[in-house]
Amino acid sequence: MPTVKTYNSKQITLALGSHAVSGMADDSFITVAALGDGITSKSGCDGEVARAIDPNRQFSVKVVLLQTSVSNAFLQAQYNADRATGDGMFPLLLKDLRGNTVLSADSAWVKKPADRGYGKETTNREWELETGPADFVEGTY
Question: CATH no. for residue 28?
Answer without folding.
Answer: 2.30.110
